[in-house]
Write a structure and sequence with these properties.
Blueprint (H helix, E strand, L loop, with lengths): L20 H7 L4 E6 L4 H8 L5 E5 L7 H12 L4 E5 L5 H9 L4 E4 L5 H11 L23 H10 L2 E6 L8 H6 L5 E4 L1 H7 L9 H16 L3 E6 L4 H7 L3 E6 H14 L6
Parallel strand pairs: 1-2, 1-8, 2-3, 3-4, 4-5, 5-6, 6-7, 7-8
């Protein structure tokens, strides 16, 4: 890029960033659907993407997944026009930027506690004027410099999203302020850690957890943000009625464990 080259608000390239399927569903008033993967294998991602969820949840917080494995899973999902949401570790700027530049459609940031925390996440994940994300443009998301510069900046802010996970009781005191912040796209309620923090581990339907779940949905939707959480099949309608418009249901490890256990149970009557 030379000093004399002029940028234009009109994209000069026919190349575009892939639009988000989750955001399209939400904007159309539908509930976006997600499946979770703990196994960092592109084949698992392809099998799940073929089922046509709106997104796959990939995890770098609790698994040994490498950036290269995540990149291959993102690529597999895109074959089926399926978004990928990468839960990142609470690390450096690069831990946030690299999944986005590998063309993840969104990030999930765990344990956002207050407005200052949310602002730091926003600044690392949104380009100006929303945040202070540094620009590269030479990676998968910008199709290796083929997406024009201004189009890249604009689309990265409008077709990529960040979920701030609400997993701690103290975060509820700052919920309104977090939801009001420009650049916060989604509040994602995490009932598991929330129940542990309350001293009632695994009691996901305890009154205190249910109240927090309802409040997160109400605050998110009131401020025009996506309300997201995890649920089982039997809870989909109830959670949608609460206002959740992005639901993660099921996981690869659950499916495989249940499948293996079921097969082995068939041998119990054999002597």
């Amino acid at each position: 890029m030379t000093d004399k080259q002029q940028y234009s608000a009109v994209p000069a390239s026919a190349f575009r960033m892939r639009p988000s399927r989750v955001l399209r569903a939400v904007r159309e008033g539908r509930v976006a659907r997600m499946l979770k993967l703990n196994i960092a294998d592109a084949k698992i991602a392809e099998i799940f993407a073929a089922a046509q969820p709106d997104a796959l949840w990939l995890c770098m917080e609790h698994t040994s997944a490498t950036h290269e494995q995540i990149e291959n899973q993102i690529r597999a999902a895109k074959l089926y026009d399926v978004d990928t949401l990468v839960r990142v570790p609470r690390g450096s700027y690069s831990d946030y930027a690299r999944p986005l530049e590998a063309d993840a459609t969104g990030l999930m940031v765990p344990h956002v506690l207050n407005i200052d925390d949310a602002r730091r996440v926003r600044d690392m994940t949104k380009f100006a004027p929303l945040g202070r994300r540094a620009v590269d443009g030479g990676n998968n998301d910008a199709q290796f410099t083929r997406v024009s510069f201004l189009d890249y900046l604009k689309t990265a802010n409008t077709e990529r999203f960040v979920c701030h996970q609400i997993e701690d009781p103290e975060a509820l005191d700052h919920l309104e302020a977090i939801a009001e912040l420009d650049g916060v796209d989604c509040l994602f309620f995490g009932p598991g850690d929330f129940s542990v923090a309350l001293g009632m581990p695994g009691e996901l339907q305890a009154p205190e957890v249910k109240a927090a779940r309802q409040r997160v949905a109400e605050v998110a939707r009131r401020h025009g943000k996506i309300a997201a959480t995890v649920c089982g099949k039997a809870q989909i309608k109830d959670y949608a009625d609460l206002g959740y418009n992005f639901l993660s249901v099921g996981a690869d490890v659950v499916a495989l464990a249940q499948y293996a256990d079921d097969l082995m149970a068939a041998f119990e009557d054999i002597r």
